[in-house]
Specification:
This protein is α/β, with parallel strands linked by helices and about 375 residues long. Helix content is about 40%, strand content about 15%. The radius of gyration is 21 Å and the shape is globular.
Length: about 375
């Protein structure tokens, strides 16, 4: 089968640069049995290259909105882009954006099945940040059209598919993007503290709400001796979170590692006693599965996979409640049996839904769609 994957980015010829590891791992897993061509709608520069058996074509950096190509010329360019690499048996777009709409339109015209996977903030709007696609009429129209035209809709969690309109919700399938568990594997048990090690894996940005995490951590520091918090992620807030940490008197208790390669990230997961999130929205949260693969439970707001895994395999608190988050962290640090049981349950979920499982599930979906494939007239 020839599979075309349309992605928002996350691929680069240089390993660990601008990577979305879950998408890279999925493409590589699918390439074991199929011919896979990735079309990345953004990248550092236009390029065509191979990652193992996966062929990648990427566009350059996205222009600012005022300079973006009008819809009609872009559709023609997109069609030529895909047609030149085709023919394909299926097109699968991540996420439900303009590229997904163009892919669904192309698939309809070419009489091939298409899949659109929700993976970001397409269905939400947080006006105070601002974050999400649902606050803009054009973005809502694009997302809605992409989903209606798709042969199938998937999302990584029921948390995200619950936001679909009733007319589309019945078509949605839950397919978490799994990870390469062998890359992170570790026993759920950790050496007892103190010292205690906490880990937060996320880019520093407004939707991840690191100020709430720092307030929660201040509460933990006041209750638990010798505790440290590691931040792993690119800073897009110009040092604001570091300044807030100093203002809370936490500068000696936190470390900001910036963008961390996967090899180093696995080591951080294995050293930590708990993985923490404070996000206001997650469609899934692949880092939750990475931590789980290392036997590490996540504590955070009831969003994305935390909503799926709690209470047995994650600890969920109300979104935005930093006091509840701090109390949950402190409580689990001193309850080793509960922490280890939660980590073991999370690890079982990660192993049962690893990247190989995700690839097999999508392959079965592609096969079902192909059987329903309309004939050319």
């Amino acid at each position: 089968m020839r599979v075309g994957l349309i992605v928002p980015g996350g691929f680069d010829p240089t390993p660990d640069v601008a990577a979305i590891p879950a998408l890279q791992s999925l493409a590589q897993e699918l390439s074991r049995r199929h011919q896979v061509q990735v079309f990345a709608s953004a990248g550092r520069q236009p390029a065509a290259y191979r990652l193992g058996e996966v062929a990648v074509t990427q566009m350059g950096p996205r222009p600012p909105p005022a300079r973006r190509t009008p819809a009609a010329p872009l559709a023609v360019a997109f069609a030529r882009w895909i047609a030149a690499a085709g023919p394909f048996d299926v097109l699968h777009a991540f996420w439900a954006d303009r590229s997904a709409l163009l892919a669904a339109l192309f698939a309809r015209a070419a009489f091939i099945p298409s899949v659109v996977t929700l993976g970001g903030g397409e269905l939400v709007w947080l006006p105070d940040i601002p974050y999400g696609g649902a606050g803009n009429a054009r973005a809502r129209a694009v997302t809605g059209a992409a989903l209606r035209l798709a042969g199938a809709i998937t999302g990584g969690t029921r948390f995200v598919t619950r936001r679909l309109p009733t007319s589309l919700a019945g078509r949605a399938e839950i397919v978490p993007l799994g990870v390469d568990v062998g890359r992170f594997d570790a026993p759920p048990g950790r050496p007892p503290g103190p010292p205690w090690r906490l880990l937060h894996v996320a880019n520093l940005n407004e939707v991840k709400d690191q100020p709430a995490l720092l307030r929660a951590f201040r509460r933990v520091v006041d209750r638990v001796a010798d505790v440290r918090l590691d931040f792993a992620g690119e800073d897009s807030l110009g040092g604001d979170i570091q300044r807030r940490a100093r203002a809370l008197g936490l500068d000696t208790r936190v470390a900001f590692h910036g963008c961390v390669p996967q090899s180093r990230l696995a080591w951080l997961y294995r050293q930590a006693h708990l993985h923490l999130l404070s996000s206001r929205h997650e469609s899934q949260g692949v880092v939750i599965l990475e931590a789980a693969a290392a036997g590490l439970p996540t504590v955070g707001p009831r969003v994305g996979l935390i909503d799926t895994l709690a209470p047995a395999a994650a600890c969920a608190v109300p979104p935005g409640d930093s006091d509840a988050l701090g109390d949950a962290i402190a409580g689990l640090l001193v309850d080793a049996p509960a922490r280890q049981a939660m980590g073991a349950a999370a690890q079982r979920f990660a192993r049962d839904h690893d990247v190989a499982w995700t690839a097999r599930t999508f392959e079965a979906l592609y096969a079902r769609l192909s059987r329903r494939r309309p004939s050319r007239r």
